[in-house]
Known about the structure:
Layout: H1 6-20, E1 25-29, E2 32-36, E3 47-49, H2 57-70, E4 75-80, H3 85-93, E5 100-109, E6 122-125, H4 130-140, H5 144-155, E7 161-167, E8 173-182, E9 185-193, H6 202-218, E10 222-228, H7 232-241, E11 245-255
Parallel strand pairs: 3-4, 9-10
Antiparallel strand pairs: 1-2, 2-3, 4-11, 5-10, 5-11, 6-7, 7-8, 8-9
Amino acid sequence: MDSPPAHHLARRVEEACLNGWPALREVVFDGWLIRLADGHTRRTNSVNLLSPGAQPLDRKVRYCEGIYSAQGLPTIFCIPSTADPALGRLLDERGYDPPEDESCVLFMDLAQTRPQPVTGVLLEAGLPGESWLAGLARLHGQNDHAQRTHRKILENLAIPAVFAAVSLDDGSPGALAYGAVHDGIVCVNSVVTHPDFRRQGLARKAVAAVLSWAQELRGATGACLSVVAENASARSLYASMGFTREMYRYHYRRRSEPT
Length: 259
């Protein structure tokens, strides 16, 4: 069977990324998805460009700015590498900050590269347990507001998900990850390792366990994740696991001042 066209696969991956890390509220306007989650993470508090639409760019940008201003939040655009350059020029004119954190969306074909079996990983399907959430808060240094919002985001998942934890000898979390499956693709998120135990294979085990669960129990045929382009160590890890296809890139543009 022929592989699906690249643009079709890219759209499926984009959907998996959006559904695998949901916002708390959303507004759709002329092909743009305005995501809101109390300011917790740029991914869930930014404008995503799903399709070109028909409205003038200036009107659409001003509309988005009004939504975020009403919430007391900065306006942030998630700009994919396929975006119309005219949008970038318009954001420059409107005083947006320079691009932040160019990131790569990577894809892994699970039919070509099967996940390696691992042991010693605790998996929780559906929703994360209190121990997983507490471990994530510690490893990310989250304050109370961030913890509450992160919990609400994960409780908002509407697709099958699994949460993986690799514990240290004292029972504390060494590495965490979770994955959510949409349309045969598992999106891997929240990969984090205890800073004192990096480069010891803990994150690899957590991610591999997520991939195995998705393939064996949910019939996933592909996997995707996002990584900052300049994070060479993370990209090397993911490439060694089979995430060798770059689907697209994106960066953020932020306007910090109220509109």
